[in-house]
Here is the input.
Amino acid sequence: MKKRFNKIASILICITFAVFLLFLKDRIDYIWGAVCTFASILKPFIYAFATAYILNFPYRFLRKKVFGKINSEFFQLKINKPLSLVLTYVIFLGLVSFLTAILIPQLSENISILVQNVPSYVTSFNKTTTDLLTWAHNTYNLDMSIFDGINKSITEFLSSLTNMNTITNIYTAAVSTASFFYNWVMAFIISVYMLGSKEFLCTQLKRAGAAFLPTKWLPTIYEIINVSDDKCGKFLVGKVLDSAIVGALCFVCLTVFGFPYAPLISVLVAICNIIPFFGPFIGAIPSASLLFLVDPAFSFWFIIIIFLIQQLDGNFIGPKVVGSQVGLIGFWSLFSVIVGGGMFGITGMILGTPIFAAIYTIMGRVTRSRVVMKGENAQRVINMPVVKSSGLMNMKAKVIKSPRKKNNSEETDIKITDDSNENE
Here is the structure.
């Protein structure tokens, strides 16, 4: 009777779950809208967490390495923490103000000049492409109809940049700017509280985990958090410093050689360089295209300069600043960037590599421990060649039961034997 009742209960649970899934399917738009609305409300807290997480590195350095060496109990208990916190945000605000004072006026001037010169760039582009197509047609007798269509599409796109609805663009830009400043001002204030009370917040989270989660899960959760912090934190901080150096080198080279739009291009290159693998291409292609509109010679020399800078970064700057915290081969780095970008856009491309590196590290530890638990037989299987051969075809897995005094039951071992020797 009890078994029958359990069976009926399981069937009812399955039916209820299926009905619930159908209910979600019919209202997925409303649910997703509610999720997006809730996420937009939490944006300041998400930005605050990211800010506090990055600033935790200089804060921890000041508190432990700089002021932690002062042999005064009163200083360590009362002054060290607030002083380190204040200095961290003073340095952060000073750096942001310095970059804003230098970059914003030049970027605004570059963008203004670019918008004013778009019509002349369109005319120059038409003339250059027409001369090139005419030369190719006269020299190689090529059909230019396909290239004419591409040229027309590019020309229409460039012309549309100056014919957009001004009022709509101004309104949209004003709303976006106001929302941007609101989110980041609130994020800055919240991050101060987060960083100042991080020990208390961590204790609360650990207490909640111990209260509502199985205790045996907690060591695994702590290990996952530790590995994620090690991979993501060091990677992000190192990548930001590395990209800043690359942007500075690009700005110096472009300014020395008299390239136009040097600040605009350098900022674009620096920001895109944060993206692993594809970042240098994403930053270089639009910059080279912009310089091509001004003068094709600028575009050619820019490609050479950015290639040399990326070689310097990949062989010397990157390994010193970022280090080898990620620990992924090229294939897995490419995989993580493509999958992360496909799922979450630019944010996924930036965070995909360190997050996948953390998953890769944890899975590697679990795999190694399970291989060790299975003993020599598992290692022999790993070393076995995965090819068709006469020796391999004679390999057999024999099950040998060996009695062990554990819960009064027998455990089964698998022994790999080579019957080719016996046949001989």
